[in-house]
Every structure is written in structure tokens, then in C-alpha cells.
Design a protein that fits this description.
By secondary structure, the protein is α/β, with parallel strands linked by helices. The chain contains two helices and 24 strands. It has a seven-stranded parallel sheet, with no helix packed on it. Strands 3-6-9-12-17-20 form a six-stranded parallel sheet, with no helix packed on it. A six-stranded mixed sheet has the order 11-16-19-22-23-24, with no helix packed on it. The longest helix is centred in the first third of the chain and has 22 residues. It holds the Pfam family Hexapep.
Length: 221
């Protein structure tokens, strides 16, 4: 019986591996042709999450998108969102499984951006301006998002509308990010704040260390 079970297990795993390979979305697959641009070597793993608005999505060369990742433009399939790309993912990126990238106006993800699993990125937020109207029925507000090249987004991070993340930034797992952050920032917390910066003289340091070092030097003089 154990021999039969092993043989069946091997067949099932081989069959599933073949299904995953056949079901992946690549530039050569029929689903890949729906995208505005899908670069060489791009792969969206099977099974994918919800994907729609492909004609407004550009994905750079050699980017890998994990299983069950949802990438979409607009609230639902069908509407005309204009002539330009709305969601741009750079080259050589890696988007972790279960993540969601939901674009309505503009999301720019630079080259070599890596994310952990279950990251959420959106450029749209619900509003609550009218206290008498259910929040879900009020017209949402869009603000562009950009994530600088070389950045890393930890598992479960949430990138909210209006975020402008510089190059080579680190977002801690579970952080809720909104606002502008300079190059070489480490941001963490809810809401996220800068907890470390990089300076050629000081290396990675807590905010304010540069001015503290300058004050000490001035005092010594």
C-alpha cells in the first residue's frame, strides 16, 4: 500500500507541477497578450489572483509575480481608463504571493523592487466627507503612488494613496505607509515613520543623528 501511495503522490505532484507551468501567464501565453506590455522573461505564477484592466498594465523584463497575486486597474473589468498606462511595474521585480496591487490613477513601481507576501498597494482611498452618506457609497479619492527602485516591502505592508517612497528603501513588515520618504529610508510602524536613514559619513543611523554629531563637533571646536 505504501508503494502505491508513493507512486500516486509522485504522479499528483508531477501533474500539479505541469498544471502550474502550463497555467502561468507569460509573454507567449494568450493571457499575456492582453497586457499593454509584458517584458521578456515575465512570469505570473499559477494560480493567479484577480487580474483585469490588462491593457493599462506594463510589466518590465524578468519580473516574477507570485501565486494568487491580484493586479488590476479600475474598480471592475470593462470601463475605458484612457490612453495611458496606469500601473507600471519595473524590470527584475519580485512580487510576493497573495499580494494586491490595485491602481485607478497611477502606481509606479521601480526596477528591482521586492515584496514579501500579502503586501497591499493602492492609489485609491474611501472618503468620509459626508457624515450622512455610507462611506462605501461616497466617491473615492485617488492619489498617485510611486515606489523607488531597489526597495524592499516586508510581508503584510500596506502602501496607501499618495505614498512616494524613494530609492533603496525598506518598509517593515506590517507597516502602514502614507506620505513621502527620501532615498535610503527604513520605515516602520502604524502609521509608518522613518526609523533609520543612510548617510555616507554615519552609515545607517536613527533620524537626528547627523545633526547631533554636527552639534558635538561644533561644541568640540
Amino acid at each position: 500500500m505504501s508503494v502505491v501511495r508513493r507512486a500516486m503522490g509522485m504522479l499528483i505532484h508531477r501533474a500539479y507541477a505541469a498544471i502550474r507551468e502550463a497555467g502561468a501567464i507569460t509573454p507567449d501565453s494568450p493571457a499575456g497578450h492582453e497586457f499593454r506590455r509584458m517584458g521578456d522573461g515575465v512570469k505570473i505564477a499559477f494560480p493567479p489572483g484577480a487580474i483585469f484592466g490588462e491593457r493599462w498594465i506594463e510589466i518590465g523584463d524578468h519580473t516574477l509575480i507570485g501565486e494568487r497575486v491580484s493586479i488590476s486597474c479600475g474598480m471592475m473589468p470593462g470601463p475605458d481608463l484612457g490612453p495611458d498606462a496606469i500601473l507600471r511595474i519595473g524590470r527584475s521585480c519580485s512580487i510576493g504571493r497573495g499580494s494586491h496591487i490595485v491602481a485607478h490613477q497611477s502606481i509606479e513601481i521601480g526596477d528591482d523592487v521586492f515584496t514579501g507576501p500579502y503586501v497591499y498597494i493602492t492609489d485609491q482611498n474611501h472618503v468620509y466627507d459626508d457624515p450622512d452618506v455610507p462611506i462605501g457609497r461616497q466617491w473615492p479619492r485617488n492619489t498617485p503612488v510611486s515606489i523607488g527602485a531597489g526597495s524592499w516591502l516586508g510581508a503584510g505592508a500596506i502602501i496607501l494613496p499618495g505614498t512616494r517612497l524613494g530609492r533603496q528603501c525598506v518598509v517593515a513588515g506590517g507597516a502602514v505607509v502614507r506620505g513621502e520618504f527620501p532615498d535610503h529610508s527604513v520605515v516602520a510602524g502604524v502609521p509608518a515613520k522613518v526609523v533609520r536613514n543612510y548617510d555616507p559619513e554615519l552609515g545607517w543611523h536613527a533620524p537626528g543623528m547627523h545633526s547631533l554629531a554636527a552639534d558635538r563637533q561644533a561644541t568640540a571646536l
